[in-house]
C-alpha cells in the first residue's frame, strides 16, 4: 500500500511531500533494500528504540563497524573521469563522491553515484563554457540559470580512445577546469589493489569517521501504531503523518506533551537525512534547496517485521520513487 500526503505546517510554508508505504521485510516484493540503495548521499542516521534502556549488542557492533570516509581537498574534476580512476574505483566497487561546502542553489556542484553516473549542476555561464550536453534544471523558472550534465562513466562507449571521452576530458581539464573539495566513500568488492589513501597525495586526502552519539530520552510518551493501519484509527492508533511529525519533534529535541499517557511501543524507527545540497535525492532525481533542502526517509519497523517507509522531500524535488 502506498499513499502521498502534502504537508503544510504553516499557511505560507513551501510544499513538503510525504510518501508512505507499508510492506513486510521478507515479502518477495519488498522494496526496502532498493530504497536505501537508491538514496546515495546521507549525512545523518538516527535510531529511536522505545522501551530500551541498553543498546542491543548487535546494533552496537553494527554502528561501530560503519567504516571510514574521506575528505579530498582541491580536486580537479577531470581526475574523476580519467580511466585510471574509473578502472581502479568506479568499476571495482561502490564509489560515492559529493562536493563539500557547496550550495546547490548558488554554486557549481558535482556528485558521483555508485552506478558510475557523474552528475554536474552548474550555472549558466559554466555550462556554456564547458560546451557539454545537458538539460535545464527543472527548478530554474522561466529564465534558465542552472543546467544539469550527466556523464555515464560506465558507458562502454566512454573508453580512452573515444571522441566522447576525449571531449569530456578536454572540457573539464582545459576548456573550463573545475576544482572542488569532495567527500568520498569507496566500498571495495574484494579485489586487491589501490586504496583512496594511496591513490591521492597524502597532503590532499584526510580520513574521517562518522560521529556517533547516544542519548536516553526519559519519560518519552510514544504513540500507538498498528502496522496494518497507515491512516490510523481515531482514538485507537496514530496515522503515518502524525507519527512523522511526532518523530521530527523528538529528533529535534522539541519538548511537548503530544499524547495523553505513555504507551508500550512494539516498534522502532530508523531515520536517514540526505545532504541538503546534494544535486540528487533518490537515484538521479534532481534535488533543489529552496528553503531547506529536505530529503529524508524513515523506517518504522514492527516486531513482526512489518514496516512503514516514509519518504519526505521539499519544494524543489520530484516525488520519491
UniProtKB/TrEMBL annotation:
Highest taxon of the lineage: Eukaryota
PANTHER family reported in the protein's UniProt record: RIBONUCLEASE P PROTEIN SUBUNIT P40 (PTHR15396:SF1)
Protein name, as recorded: Ribonuclease P protein subunit p40 isoform X2
Organism annotation: Apteryx mantelli
Amino acid at each position: 500500500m502506498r499513499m502521498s500526503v502534502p504537508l503544510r505546517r504553516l499557511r505560507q510554508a513551501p510544499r513538503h511531500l510525504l510518501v508512505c508505504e507499508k510492506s513486510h521485510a521478507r515479502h518477495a516484493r519488498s522494496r526496502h533494500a532498493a530504497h536505501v540503495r537508491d538514496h546515495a548521499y546521507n549525512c545523518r542516521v538516527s535510531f529511536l528504540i522505545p522501551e530500551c534502556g541498553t543498546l542491543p549488542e548487535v546494533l552496537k557492533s553494527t554502528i561501530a563497524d560503519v567504516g571510514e570516509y574521506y575528505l579530498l581537498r582541491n580536486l580537479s574534476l577531470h581526475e574523476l573521469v580519467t580511466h585510471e580512476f574509473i578502472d581502479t574505483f568506479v568499476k571495482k566497487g561502490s564509489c560515492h563522491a559529493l562536493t563539500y561546502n557547496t550550495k546547490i542553489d548558488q554554486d557549481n556542484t558535482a556528485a558521483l553515484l555508485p552506478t558510475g553516473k557523474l552528475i554536474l549542476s552548474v550555472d549558466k555561464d559554466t555550462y556554456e563554457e564547458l560546451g557539454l550536453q545537458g538539460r535545464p534544471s527543472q527548478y530554474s523558472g522561466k529564465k534558465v540559470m542552472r543546467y544539469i550534465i550527466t556523464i555515464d562513466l560506465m558507458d562502454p562507449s566512454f573508453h580512452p580512445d573515444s571522441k566522447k571521452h576525449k571531449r569530456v576530458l578536454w572540457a573539464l581539464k582545459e576548456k573550463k577546469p573545475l576544482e572542488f573539495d569532495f567527500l568520498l566513500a569507496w566500498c571495495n568488492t574484494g579485489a586487491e589493489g589501490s586504496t583512496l589513501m594511496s591513490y591521492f597525495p597524502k597532503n590532499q586526502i584526510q580520513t574521517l569517521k562518522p560521529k556517533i552519539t547516544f542519548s536516553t530520552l526519559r519519560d518519552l510518551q510514544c504513540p500507538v501504531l498498528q502496522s496494518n493501519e497507515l491512516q490510523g484509527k481515531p482514538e485507537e492508533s496514530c496515522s503515518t503523518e502524525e507519527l512523522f511529525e511526532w518523530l521530527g519533534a523528538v529528533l529535534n529535541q522539541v519538548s511537548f506533551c503530544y499524547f495523553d499517557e505513555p504507551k508500550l511501543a512494539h516498534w522502532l524507527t530508523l531515520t536517514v537525512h540526505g545532504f541538503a545540497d546534494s544535486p540528487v535525492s533518490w537515484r538521479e532525481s534532481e534535488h533543489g534547496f529552496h528553503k531547506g533542502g529536505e530529503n529524508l526517509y524513515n523506517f518504522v519497523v514492527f516486531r513482526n517485521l512489518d514496516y512503514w517507509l516514509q519518504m519526505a522531500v521539499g519544494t524543489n524535488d520530484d516525488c520519491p520513487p
